[in-house]
Amino acid sequence: MLTNVSRSVMSVGVTKDIERRLADHADGRGGIFTRKYRLNTLVRKIPRCARDDSLFGVGVVLQD
User: 54 pLDDT exceeds 70?
Assistant: First the structure.
């Protein structure tokens, strides 16, 4: 979960390499939305998260 400095916009994403993805966002190589709103502050990381077809919350399972 990323936000901007003023914490007025948030975005949720899924990645296998959080360090690379955060570096991409910091360097302006993220998606159009994240570049437009300058989302490069990590709010929350859920380690080893698996997801199914339901994307935002329902069906998210934390693996041991």
Answer: no
